[in-house]
Specification:
Largest sheet: 9 strands, mixed
Number of strands: 26
CATH superfamily of the largest domain: Acetyl-CoA hydrolase/transferase C-terminal domain
CATH topology of the largest domain: Glutaconate Coenzyme A-transferase
Distance between the termini: 77 Å
Oligomer: single chain
Number of helices: 28
Low-confidence stretches: none
CATH architecture of the largest domain: 3-Layer(aba) Sandwich
Length: 723
């Protein structure tokens, strides 16, 4: 039977086809983040926007936006950055209208995950949010009525055959295509649209698909969109201290999951320091008191040594930090997609070279049958156990012109096969399994320009594979040994609850994403640990609040799934502990400004002994102490603000720092002093600040708006202490 062929259309023709098939009620899903086909969805949105009789429902996650500014000063700062670093990147038109309050009534945008705080003040998006586990998003989109799925994809020709890659977003498309196939059997007609974009890195693994999986392929130069790239965030002292603590809990010969942002970069930097500058790393761990406080735990589940065997990345998100860890020699533990092979590796019986008795060993451990099927043969050949030139034909194994029976129970036959048909070494191992990615521009370039042999080690697959054990549990358990699944939360309670996705009044901050998946998997794997990272305090309107609370009205991860909580002040190992011991451990990693108040609350609720006192060694949990710890090492060139580089110039970093200082002060009582400070500002730009004012176009000011912006910028530098 001839394979189904897709329709090859341009953008406008694809929109015509969508409207032709679905008429006045169009429901389209798109992937999280980078993989959205911006040109296609803009064309569809613009058509519907101009036709109030048609309804459009967009189901997606993480609709990315270029930075912008609400004030003249912010626009002056972001304008050149956007022009230079986001050149050619198209805006999502529905997001522009959403932010302007102009989203038409006939368009509904619903997301299951968003950038933290993106819709905190948007009632429409708060009301249309769908709370869903990452591994349930395809199911929930289908239940909500989704009919179409469209995403960008990479393209290449290999051996005369055109191949497409889900590239940045293998996360949901594979499951979606399978769902659409099953829906077709029920008479439900869905539509899959792949939009070619040669700017995407072509990723391998399950992400590689043939043309016939798509109903429509759009290969239109107008849709060769520039890729949205996220600038790296500065890594602060708080981030580094959390990253250092976490790095000591990672076990060599293990598995790692980390996320995006400053905390992910802090972990990656700390692990690289541990591997490549081990003496410096040990001095930091010892000098900071981490070893003295947590040495027993580090010895039991982590380590301070170099990564001799290395780590395997098993993650929903392939972040830049993983590429940095690959470059620094930390991510290097290869896993193989065969239970028998992986089991022998884990037992130390197999390394790179294929032993002559490998088939017998797998028969003995019952990971292959004594009668080798074609499926068994092909899976073993893929990982190098059988020679590439060997074949399985007409029920026989054929190699170098000789034919062998697949009956391995025949000792003589097994000996002959082992002597003549086996490969010399393992192949097709992978060092990382991920489901989606988004990151800086040089991260994309690294993925695109890697030699093919290295690219093949980074496989992309569905989130239903990356985020859980179900469906391939025997193999995934073997591959994901010594798992350390690191996730971020907003708040934690003294009893071990974690809140990560919304406030207690129901305001959505981001979403659950895959957090529950990794928590669940961390408890299902006997040698894994779940590490929840919580910054101990937050700033709101000039005041400091604790993120460690006695109780909180939202729970993302319930306390019966508690494990390890890390703040900048330390590690709380709370798995298998009594309530009283959990409270003690959590108080030890709480900012000291809030410890006594929380302890009193616990005593009031009869959850801890009346005579309990927080040990003296944990009573100096202050930002000043942390800054002092890292100051010496920063002077040695360690712990830079941007460990993996930045798109910002020196002047821009100074400006950003000053503007942030002003914003923080403006939210608190210090704002009352601003008018008096403004009166004392110099009339001329100080010589040392001239490059910054040049960058902002405010060295001279003529219009009232320019004069106001110049004064405000001067105030920012004054508040930040630059003059």
């Amino acid at each position: 039977m001839e394979a189904k062929k897709p329709l090859y259309l341009n953008v406008e023709q694809a929109v015509d086809r969508i409207i032709e098939l679905y008429g006045k009620d169009i429901r389209i899903g798109m992937p999280l983040g980078l993989g959205k086909p911006v040109t296609l969805i803009n064309a569809l949105y613009d058509r519907v926007k101009n036709d109030p009789t048609t309804k459009l429902t967009i189901m997606t996650s993480l609709s990315v936006e270029k930075p912008s500014g609400a004030t003249d000063l912010e626009r002056r700062f972001f304008g050149p950055i956007v022009e230079k670093h986001f050149a050619g990147v198209k805006d999502l038109n529905y997001m522009l209208d959403l932010r302007a309050g102009k989203l038409p009534e006939n368009v509904v945008v619903t997301e299951v995950y968003c950038k933290a705080g993106a819709y905190i003040r948007d009632p429409k998006m708060q009301q249309s949010y769908i709370s869903s586990n990452y591994t349930h998003t395809v199911r929930d989109a289908n239940g909500y009525g989704n009919m179409i799925y469209a995403q960008m994809m990479g393209k290449k020709e290999e051996n005369g055959q055109v191949l497409y890659s889900a590239a940045s977003n293998a996360d949901c498309i594979l499951e979606t295509l399978e769902l659409f196939k099953n829906n077709a059997k029920k008479g439900i007609h869905n539509l899959s649209i792949g939009v070619v974009n040669p700017n995407l890195p072509f990723m391998y693994g399950d992400a590689v698909v043939k043309p016939e999986v798509w109903d429509i392929v759009v290969d239109d130069r107008d849709a060769y969109d520039a890729l949205f790239a996220t600038p790296r965030q500065p890594v602060a002292v708080t981030d580094y201290m959390i990253g250092l603590h976490v790095s000591s809990l990672i076990k060599d010969d293990g598995t790692l999951q980390i996320g995006i942002g400053a905390l992910g970069d802090a972990i990656a930097y700390s692990l690289g320091l541990r591997n490549n500058h081990n003496e410096s790393y040990k001095k930091v761990i010892e000098g900071s008191g981490i070893k003295a406080r947590y040495g027993a735990l580090i010895d039991a589940i982590g380590g301070m040594g170099v990564f001799e065997k290395g780590l395997y990345g098993s993650t929903e998100m392939l972040v830049d930090g993983f590429v940095q860890l690959y470059k620094s020699g930390v991510i290097k533990r290869k896993v193989y997609h065969h239970v028998g092979v992986q089991k022998l590796i884990n037992e130390g019986k197999l390394k790179d070279k294929i032993p002559a008795d490998i088939l017998q060993q797998m028969i003995d451990q019952e990971t292959i049958h004594p009668y080798l099927t074609e499926k068994d043969f092909l899976s073993l050949q893929k990982v190098g156990v059988f020679k590439a030139e060997a074949a399985y034909a007409k029920g026989q194994i054929v190699c170098n012109g000789k034919t062998y029976s697949p009956l391995l129970a025949d000792a003589a036959n097994l000996k002959a096969i082992s002597a003549n048909c086996l490969g010399s070494e393992l192949k097709n191992g992978v060092v990382l399994t991920g489901a989606f990615f988004i990151g800086p521009q040089d991260f994309y370039e690294t993925l695109k320009t890697m030699p093919l042999a290295e690219q093949l080690q980074f496989e992309m697959t569905g989130v239903n594979v990356a985020n859980q054990l179900y469906g391939g549990e025997a193999l995934r358990r073997l591959q994901r040994k010594n798992g350390r699944f690191c996730n971020t939360g907003m708040k934690a309670t003294l009893l071990g609850h974690i809140s990560s996705d919304m406030f207690e009044d129901g305001t959505v901050i981001s979403g659950v994403g895959g957090q529950y998946n990794f928590v669940s998997m961390g408890h299902a794997l006997h040698d894994a640990r779940v590490i929840m990272m919580i910054k101990s305090v937050r700033q709101e309107k000039g005041k400091t609040y604790s993120n460690i609370l006695y109780n909180y009205g939202n729970v993302t991860i319930p306390r019966h799934l508690r494990d390890i909580v890390v703040t900048e002040y330390g590690i709380a190992d709370i798995r298998s502990k009594t309530d009283q011991d959990i409270i003690k451990a959590m108080l030890n990693v709480t900012d000291s400004r809030f410890q006594e108040e929380l302890l009193a609350e616990a005593k009031k609720c009869k959850k801890i002994s009346e005579d309990y006192q927080i040990p003296e060694q944990y009573r100096n949990n202050t930002p000043e102490r942390l800054a002092a710890i890292l100051k010496e090492f920063k002077a040695q060139g360690l712990f830079p603000d941007f460990p993996f580089g930045t798109i910002f110039s020196g002047e821009e970093l100074f400006i950003a720092f000053a503007m942030k200082a002003l914003k923080n002060k403006a939210a608190g009582p210090d704002a009352a002093k601003f008018p008096e400070i403004m009166k004392g500002l110099p009339n001329e730009v100080p010589a040392g600040l001239k490059p910054m004012f040049d960058r902002m176009g405010l060295t001279t000011a003529k219009t009232p708006e320019e004069i106001q912006s110049q004064k405000t910028l001067m105030l920012a530098f004054k508040v930040a202490g630059f003059f």
